[in-house]
Design brief:
The protein contains five helices and no strands. By secondary structure, it is mainly alpha-helical. The chain starts with 5 loop residues before the first helix and ends with a helix.
């Protein structure tokens, strides 16, 4: 099973944050926070090469909280050593246009 450490998670999140204007511009559906959290989740899925049964799936329309919980789910199973992602998730959640 692939794992991720806190430093690598922070590096990926920082990249999303640095590219936020382009990411938001090219993904206009949803709020900026939803878009950034979706991108972070997608990067984690790719980085960790998650299989379909390891990738969170959603019912209904996901929102920022849904994406946060999906990221927590991924990290619960793949963070090594375990770390707290909340400050990063909160920082990405604060963006508006």
């Amino acid at each position: 099973m692939a794992t991720i450490n806190e430093g690598e998670f922070l590096r990926i999140a920082q990249g999303v944050e640095e590219d936020r204007k382009v990411i938001i511009r090219h993904n206009p559906i949803g709020t900026p926070a939803e878009t950034l959290l979706w991108m972070l989740m997608s990067c984690l899925v790719s980085y960790l090469s998650l299989s379909d049964n390891e990738t969170p799936c959603f019912t209904g329309r996901p929102d920022a909280d849904t994406y946060k919980e999906a990221i927590r789910f991924i990290l619960r199973n793949h963070a090594e050593p375990k770390f707290d992602p909340e400050a990063t998730l909160d920082r990405l959640s604060k963006y508006d246009r």
